[in-house]
Amino acid sequence: xxxxxxxxxxxxxxxxxxxxxxxxxxxxxxxxxxxxxxxxxxxxxxxxxxxxxxxxxxxxxxxxxxxxxxxxxxxxxxxxxxxxxxxxxxxxxxxxxxxxxxxxxxxxxxxxxxxxxxxxxxxxxxxxxxxxxxxxxxxxxxxxxxxxxxxxxxxxxxxxxxxxxxxxxxxxxxxxxxxxxxxxxxxxxxxxxxxxxxxxxxxxxxxxxxxxxxxxxxxxxxxxxxxxxxxxxxxxxxxxxxxxxxxxxxxxxxxxxxxxxxxxxxxxxxxxxxxxxxxxxxxxxxxxxxxxxxxxxxxxxxxxxxxxxxxxxxxxxxxxxxxxxxxxxxxxxxxxxxxxxxxxxxxxxxxxxxxxxxxxxxxxxxxxxxxxxxxxxx
Length: 378
Ligand SMILES: CC(=O)N[C@@H](CCC[C@H](N)C(=O)O)C(=O)O
Description:
36% of the residues lie in helices and 26% in strands. By secondary structure, it is α+β, with helices and mostly antiparallel strands.
C-alpha cells in the first residue's frame, strides 16, 4: 500500500474518534475495509467493537499476533487539520488512527503475499480505558485463536520518522485509574463557618498527594500521581458540597502500586478528619506493565538493521498499555515508532508525521516475515 492510500485511511479514521467500547463507526469502517481486501485465506471474527482477522499461512507452524488499539480520547482537537475530528470533544490524540492504518497496511500486504505462518491481526477496543485487552483475552474468539507470540507498536512523538525504539524488559509502567469523591456540607458563600467546603478540601488534597511521592516512597522507586480533572460546586456564590478528582497512578512495579494506594487511603482518612467530610476512593481500571521478551527484541533489532531503519534503545516510560496483559501471558514485545511531533501524546495539537505510516507498515511486515522464517521462539 502506498503512502497516498495509507494517508487517506488515516485521515478517514482520524475524523471518527470514539471512546472505549463505543467504537461503532470505527468498527464499521475497519470491517468494510477488511472485507474489501479479504480472500479465501482470510477469516474474520468480531468481539464487541473489536475485530480479529486470521490470515492463513502457506505452511503454518504457529500463529503470530499483531495487535492495534482502536479507541480515541475525550479531548477537544486543536490541530487545525482540515480532516479534524467530526466528533467534537473526541480526538485520536494517542495515535490509534496511525496504529489502525498500519495494521490495515500490513494486513493487505500479508493477504497479497502470504507468509509461511498464520497471522492474527487484532483490532482491540478501549485501550485508553476501561481496558479491552484483558476481557478480549478471556473471550471464546481469542481462546480459539490464541497466538503463539505477539507484538504491537505505539507512535512516539519524540523520535524522528525513520527511527523505532524498544528495549528488553520493562517498557511501560503499571497503571491504575484514580477517582476521589468528596462530600461535605454546602452553604451560602458568605457563611464558611456553617459549611464544609469541598473545593478547598479537594484543592489541598491535590497538593498533599504529591507529598506521597516526595516524602513517603523510597526515592529509588519511581511513581507518578497525576490528577487530570477536578470538578466541584455549581455556582460562584455557594460553598461546594461535593468535589471530584480524576487521575491516574503510575509505578514501575506492582508492589509500589499497592504502597501508593495504601498511602492515598491514609491521606484520605486524615482529610476526612481535618475537613469534616466523607471521602471515597475508587480505582477504576488497572493495567499490567509492558514487559518485553529479550529474544524478540534481539530479533527486532536484527530486522531494523536488515531494512535500514534506525533502532534506538528506549528508556522505560510511565505510559501505560493494556497490551501488557497480553505480554504477561504470550511471548512478544512492543516498540515505539518515531512520528516527530512537537506536541506529545494526549495533546490537543498532536500532529504525527504521516511518512511514518510507511515506516510502520514496512517494519511490521518484515518483523512478521522474520518471525515466520525463523520459526517459533521457545
Ligand atoms: C499509551 C497511553 O497513553 N496509554 C494510556 C493508558 C491509560 C490507562 C488508564 N485510563 C489510566 O489512566 O490509568 C496512558 O495514559 O498511559
